[in-house]
Amino acid sequence: MRCLRLAAFAVLAGLVALRSPSPAADPFFGADPAWRLLHEPAVMRELALTATQSQQFRGLLDELDAKFFPLRNTPREEASNGAAEILADASTRLEAMLSKAQFRRLGEIQSRQQGTTALLRAEMTTLMHYKPQQKERLEKVISETLAVTRELEKRVGNGEPREPLEKEYSKLKQDELRKVTGVLTPAQRSLWQKALGRDFDLKSLGCPAFKAPELVDSGAWLNSGPISMHALAGKVVILHFYAFGCSNCIHNYPTYLEWQEQFRDKDVVILGIHTPETVAEQDSATVKTKAEDAKFRFPILIDGTKANWNAWGNSMWPSVYLIDKRGYLRHFWPGELKWQGATGDQWMRGRIEELLAEPASARSND
Q1: What Å distances lie between residue 345 and 98, 251, 303, 337, CA to CA?
Q2: In the chain, what are the domain boundaries?
Q3: Strand-pair category, 300-302 with 268-274
């Protein structure tokens, strides 16, 4: 079975999976949450970027996104090291790009995003001058909370009702905050509050936009001549990776056919990327026959060399990505859309409609 069960995604200071009815849009699960934060329009607005800064900021992220995507399916250590290098590069260049006040505010938002874990970062440890016993107690409280959080994630992934789990998580974080503040001295609590800066609504997060990788000429095209992401500007793109011998992929076919009809006369392009896993799936003629049998009329790129699979850092058959009219990845669904009663088809259709309603021009401060 190639499709892994849809797991909850832990990012920001808590569980996005417990706050949202969808899988996270962030395809870089396991990466430093600070990377996702940089892609949030709410953060860009909070920094009050000038027109020039907005262009530079977005250009920097676009450049680094192309390096970040391929890390997604590399070994954990390689991915972690690569992500750390990219984030360090981004930080250095952003410090030069932003004013001191803007860069400081970005750091404050990052501290709020990280929640209690920020207290264990090197710069905070230096600032707080913890006594050995204090640091040990903080590490214990935060690690115990993380362990329980991971258990909640598993329960979300197993399909347990969300509302009770949300309440458990809320109480868990309240207890953690109470214990952590009890460990800190009044002076340390004051320093922590200063590091957080003025209030920022974390609920405004959750709308990141990552520059979608350009398509690589890795094989023949079906139902179309060669297409580039650049040429699809102004269209909402539903891009899915599949293989014709994958049963989990086949279970998604009815949804693709529904979308094929529903969005036929709208600014939507469905784009299949067939990446083989087995020897049989490497035969282009069979890929063509199977696509005809499935009644696929949308463009399909036969990714025989896995160049596109690797450019996206994809790791699962099937995977469905939604790209907006400006060429930015906005939503991502790994695995079957209806796995064990999931309603991914409905959720993604709603997101497609939202992207269709957006203008093709760039959003403010994005």
Answers
A1: 41, 11, 25, 5
A2: 18-204, 212-357
A3: parallel
Q: Specify whether the CB–CB gap between 13 and 67 falls below 8 A.
A: no
Place of tokens 């064990």: 340
Q: How many C-beta neighbours within 10 Å does residue 307 have?
A: 16
**Rounded Cα–Cα distance for residues 269 and 260 (Å):** 9
Residues in the chain, overall count: 366
Asked if the model's pLDDT at residue 234 lies above 60, the reply is yes
Give the pair of three-digit tokens for residue 7.
């797991």
Which pair of tokens denotes residue 150?
């991971």
* Average pLDDT, integer, range 254-282: 96
Q: Which CATH class is domain 212-357?
A: alpha beta
Tell me if residue 300 falls in helix, strand or coil: strand
What would the two tokens of residue 176 be?
Answer: 């953690």
Q: What is the mean pLDDT of residues 27-48?
A: 82
- Over residues 275-300, the mean pLDDT reads 96
User: What are the tens digits of pLDDT across the range 125-153?
Assistant: 999 999 999 999 999 999 999 899 888 87
Tokens of 224: 């179309």
Please state the rounded mean pLDDT for residues 298-324. 96
User: Do residues 313 and 70 make contact, with C-beta atoms less than 8 angstroms apart?
Assistant: yes
∠314-316-318 over CA atoms, to 5°?
110
The β-bridge partners of 292 are none
Where do we find the tokens 């440890």? 125
d(CA 229, CA 76): 29
More confident residue, 366 or 309: 309
CA distance linking residue 339 with residue 141, whole number of Å: 35
Helix (H/G/I), strand (E/B), else coil: 155: helix
Residue 108 structure tokens: 């404050």
Q: Which two tokens stand for residue 289?
A: 């026959």
Model pTM score: 0.84
Q: What is the dihedral of CA 42, 43, 47, 48, to 10 degrees?
A: -20
Predicted pLDDT of residue 348:
95
Looking at residue 241, the DSSP 8-state letter turns out to be E
**Residue type at 339 in one-letter notation:** W
Residue 102 CA to its chain's centroid (Å): 24
pLDDT of amino acid 44: 95
